[in-house]
Design goal:
The protein is mainly beta. The protein contains two helices and 24 strands.
């Protein structure tokens, strides 16, 4: 069966089968079939239609555009192995059903009350090598912000400037981003701190029962944050947006 494979930073996130007559909508809003939580993605960004013997990709007047094999498109017939770029995510066309994906048993991380479920799909070694060899020129260039900031993807709205010293996220009333409600009970303590050191930002686990995540992976100590990393702390999901650095 034909399928679209959603990838981010060379990792497969999900696979979407396509049968004759099917339609998939792609965008940031949760009413889409393929939801991509990134501010570069429009609410309703693009659509894929399986019409008879062809599969059609249509851009829905998105702000930042839809790209197929590095070229911005309005509407195009997708061929096997085409790569559709939306924001920083890639949708791979696998019409011949040759790419094998499998779930990792270690990927499921379900919190009490089914408040948060995360899963990862692993790609075969052969295909992983092909993904890493993709030409960088095929990816559209994104515009960096003028100042370092965090953008809410969930649990809040808008953006927040990254401070010169540190930013605390947790249940304490004096935290910069306060987590309340049932999540405060589940966390049981402070959660995470983002600090700035020598121009770089670092995410540190501060305590409590629920560890923060960077790009879906739990943080047990301290990790460096890069541009467009996604930080999750309980119900809060933030994208790191860093301005261009001037080479020394």
């Amino acid at each position: 069966m034909s399928k679209l494979i959603l990838m981010f930073k060379d990792k497969i996130l999900s696979a979407y089968p396509l049968s004759a007559g099917d339609r998939l909508t792609i965008g940031r809003r949760t009413d889409n079939n393929v939801v991509i939580e990134n501010l570069a993605v429009s609410g309703h960004h693009a659509r894929v239609d399986h019409q008879g013997d062809r599969i059609l990709l249509t851009d829905l007047d998105s702000k930042n555009g839809t790209f197929c094999n590095g070229q911005r498109i309005t509407q195009i017939v997708l061929n096997n192995n085409d790569e559709v770029t939306i924001g920083k995510h890639v949708l791979k066309a696998d019409w011949s059903d040759t790419i094998v994906v499998e779930r990792s048993d270690e990927a499921f991380d379900t919190l009490p009350g089914n408040l948060d479920t995360a899963s990862t799909i692993l790609m075969t070694d052969a295909y992983a090598k092909g993904v890493k060899n993709r030409s960088a020129s095929a990816k559209p260039k994104t515009v960096r912000p003028k100042s370092d900031r965090l953008a809410f993807l969930a649990g809040g709205e808008g953006t927040r400037a990254l401070p010169e010293r540190q930013l605390a996220i947790g249940i304490n009333p004096d935290a910069d981003i306060v987590i309340g409600g049932l999540w405060a009970v589940l966390m049981g303590g402070p959660a995470a701190v983002i600090t700035k050191q020598a121009g770089d930002y670092f995410l540190r686990y501060a305590g409590g029962w629920i560890k923060p995540k960077r790009n879906g992976a739990r943080v047990k100590g301290t990790v460096k944050l890069n541009h467009e990393d996604v930080v999750e702390v309980g119900p809060i999901k933030l994208e790191v947006q860093l301005c261009e650095r001037v080479a020394a």
